[in-house]
Structures are given as structure tokens and as C-alpha cells.
Amino acid sequence: MDVATAQVKCLWFVARQHPGPMGRVVLVTGGAGFVGSHTVVELLEAGHHVVVVDNCINSTKGSDPQELPPALARVQTITGKTLRAFYMVSLLDRPGLTKVFAKHQVDLVIHFAALKAVGESVEKPLDYYINNVTGTLNLLEVMGEAGVKRLVYSSSATVYGVPQYLPTDELHPTGVGITNPYGQTKYVCEQIMKDLATADKEWRVVLLRYFNPVGAHESGKIGENPSGPPNNLVPYIAQVAVGKREALSVFGDDYDTPDGTGVRDYIHVMDLASGHVAALDKIFSEDFRSAIAYNLGTGQGVSVLQMIDAFKRASGRDIPYKVVGRRNGDVATIVASCTLAEQELGWRATRNLQQMCIDTWRWQSQNPDGFM
Ligand code: UFG
Description:
This protein is an alpha/beta fold. It has a domain at 10-214 and 266-297: Rossmann fold (3-Layer(aba) Sandwich). 41% of the residues lie in helices and 15% in strands. The strands form 4 sheets. The protein has a 7-stranded parallel β-sheet, with helices on both faces. Helix 7 (181-199) links the parallel strand 5 (150-156) and strand 6 (204-210). The N and C termini lie far apart (55 Å). Uridine-5'-diphosphate-4-deoxy-4-fluoro-alpha-D-galactose binds next to helix 7, helix 8 and strand 8.
């Protein structure tokens, strides 16, 4: 090898090891989904370059395979920026994934891609373990082979099972009392990543444990777009408000909570998205340790009835509801302690319940049929 070539190789190596503070190449799995697409907005706004990998089984596809999924086309409209690339590839397609990593000098991966319907996971556990766990294993192996060892993982408060204390912090035991296969896959993937980071100190992983993501980008152009009847509270309320569904079923009013209905820590999806950018910055900081979990929530508990009331005010629509029995696997209350994220990521949620409802309503009322 001549000296000039050696110098270029060396410079390239240094650049890979010490990339500048801005403009990282971020590969986002599941970037066409709800939290993924909002995070891509924040990444582009922060000056990063984004490659999206998504199989679009749970998100609307473009009208032909060459076309971007509508959520990502709208992300480009919102930001005025262009994605570096989009690949309709499944994480189960290892050769396809390897090709993507061969085409791009990826600095960090944010891994959202997963199946996420709790009830469905009870009926089809193998689909969940294969997609979520095998898919993650493939991704980790391909990343390792490509020398990309920085990862932000989309985890969930579900890893805490039935909370033993509130607000629940990251020291709370995980993996105990998880009531469904979806939750188990999140826990198992966290364990795999922790073990990997213990075995190989080059891995730098942030596990982000989301509480209940709601809301939409304030433009009203992107938002949550469930296929079929929504499983989660806020998308269901939004569809009742817009007239697509008759009435909400409130799952139990006999919990040990102030009004008897379930209490959750709802977080605006744009706050969640900015949490990912903060996690990325943390991973590139000098003092970063191998694999760290952070809660992303607001620390505020909101009951089902309080959410109905807030959404009524935001939308000006009536939300008919009937109280039915408890849903299997639900806990009475879970609320996050977000002190660690505040101290170590310099991040905290800034949008309140009213903002969550106003933005959800803007998205729902302007796009009653989602991205169609
Ligand atoms: N609820 C209703 N009616 C509905 C839907 C929900 O009353 O039609 C109630 C639930 O009983 C619960 C609250 O609204 O008290 C929130 O329910 P969601 O389904 O919106 O959210 P969960 O807290 O059950 O689920 C969330 C995430 C999951 C995650 C789970 C556990 O959506 O991905 O937290 O942490 F697994």
C-alpha cells in the first residue's frame, strides 16, 4: 500500500472513530412507524443523515416499491430535508440487511422495528418472538459484522411488569410479572443487548423505556395510524371523537386509583422523539458506559376519565363511553421517574396533556383515514 492510500485509510478510520459532533449517519429500523417517523423528523432537524429500514407490515406503503411510504414523504415535507435512503427490508432478511450496511457508513442505529399489539401477541406468540427477538438478533449480528456498535433501543415500561413502587425508576426489577409475549420480547431484547455490551466493551447501547406515547407532530401531517380497531386508549378516543367509532369501552372503574380507572404516564411523541436525539448525543459522549436504560415519561399520572375529559376539551367533541370489565394484564397505575434521563441525558418532556390532545386531534381530524 502506498503512503497516500495508507493516509486516506487512516483518516477514514479516525473519522469513523471520532465523527464530528453533527451530521451522524443514523440507520432507523421501523422509521415509517409512529414513534419512528416522529424521531426521523427530530433527527433531520438536528442535522443528522437518516437511512430508514422498514418492512411496512404495520405502516402504509408507498403506491409502488420505489416510492417512499407516505409517513416518510410527509416527514420530508415537514423538515424540507431528504432522507439519505429508504429500504423496504425485513429484519428477518439477513442478506438484505447486510447489503444496507454495506452501502452506508452507519454511525448509529435506532431500533424501533417490532410488532407491538399486546393482545395479538397472546394469540400469536411465535410471530412476536420471531419478529421481535430473531429480528433483533439478526440486526445485532449484522451491525457487529459491519463494525457498527452504537445502538438506541425502543424498549417499554412493560419490562417492569406490575410496578412494586411508584414513580417507577430504572432500578426497579425487570422481567418479573410480564403478562404477555410482546412485553417478554422487549425484556428479552434488553437482556441480549446488556449481555452483548458486557461481552464486548465496544458496544454502546441506550435502552429507552417508553411510558405511553401519544400525540402527533404539530403540523398534523404525521401521527399514529393503527390498522383495525385501536388497542390503545388515545387512538381509540380520537376515532370516537371523529365519528369513526361509536363509544369507548373503559376497561374497569374499580381500580385502587382516585377515580377507579387506570392511571398511566402519557408522553407526547415529539418529546419521546427528542429523547432519542439526546440518547444519540449521550452515546457519542466520552464518559458513556456500555448499556444504560432510561425511562421516558412525564412523571404525571393521568386516569382514563381524565384523558376523556382532556380530549373532549381539545376536540370540542363528545366522547361517549361505557364502563366494562377490566382488561386482562392491565395494572392499576404506572408512572415514571424520569430523574435519570434528566440528569444524564439533559432531557425532559415539555409538552402537557392539553398539547398531547390538541396535536392528536389535529392529526385525527385532518386525516380521518390515516395516510390514505
Ligand atoms: N383503556 C381503556 N379502553 C381502551 C383502551 C385502553 O379503558 O379502549 C385503558 C386501559 O385499561 C389502561 C389505559 O387505558 O388503563 C391505557 O391503555 P393503553 O392500551 O393505551 O396503554 P397500556 O398502558 O395498556 O399499554 C402501554 C403500551 C404497551 C405496553 C404497555 C405496558 O401501549 O405497548 O403500556 O407498559 F406494553
